[in-house]
Amino acid sequence: MSQVSVLPSQRGASADAYSDPLVSFHFGVDLSGKSIGFFMECSGLGSENEVIESKVVQEGREITMKIPGRLKWENIVMKRGITDDLTIWDWRNQVVEGNIDDARVNGSVVMYNQFGDEVARWNFLNAWPVKVTGPTPKADSNEIGVEELTITHEYIERVAAGDTAVTAQVS
């Protein structure tokens, strides 16, 4: 008799409930409901809390309690092959010119599979471009020129594919 391994996340679930991990084929960014392009790499889709350590004595023993501190949102960093589209450069230029209120937008990072179907979405609030970097040209290189967009924001959440509504209210 052969034995079948069961993943911890599958314990107690029916065989029909299992789904394969998503393949991250490419990413797009939507700003205020309008796509600004596709990207080949994306990082920073998350948050973390600072940890406050407090030393206390309980029953004669010193222990260190760890308490959640300030919440920090990671910057979203996206990379793509450079094109003639200047949308992200124009968006960044709003910040350079001091129009930060106009530059702040809500948006989404959308992950697509190899067939172009949306498979995951992260919605963010009050975002603006911190940095845009162009390619590093080298005459002896045979590589695609890559530009990088770094977005800062005040909130991000993972939602079901196709869900554009952000549940948090940040003012």
Number of DSSP-assigned strands: 10
Task: Give the fraction of residues assigned to helices.
Answer: under 10%
Radius of gyration using CA atoms only: 21 Å
**Broad structural category:** mainly beta
How big a fraction of the residues is strand?
over 45%
Question: What does this molecule look like?
Answer:
8% of the residues lie in helices and 48% in strands. It has helices at 87-96, 100-103, and strands at residues 26-31, 34-39, 41-43, 47-58, 61-73, 76-81, 105-112, 118-133, 146-152, 155-159. It is globular and about 70 Å long. The chain starts with 25 loop residues before the first strand and ends in a 12-residue tail after the last strand. The model has no long low-confidence stretch (mean pLDDT 85).
Describe the structure in brief.
The chain has 171 residues and is mostly beta strands. The chain has 2 helices and 10 strands. The termini are far apart.
Keywords:
48% strand, 171 residues, mainly beta, eight-stranded antiparallel beta sheet, two-stranded antiparallel ribbon, globular, 8% helix
SSE inventory with pairings:
Blueprint: E1 26-31, E2 34-39, E3 41-43, E4 47-58, E5 61-73, E6 76-81, H1 87-96, H2 100-103, E7 105-112, E8 118-133, E9 146-152, E10 155-159
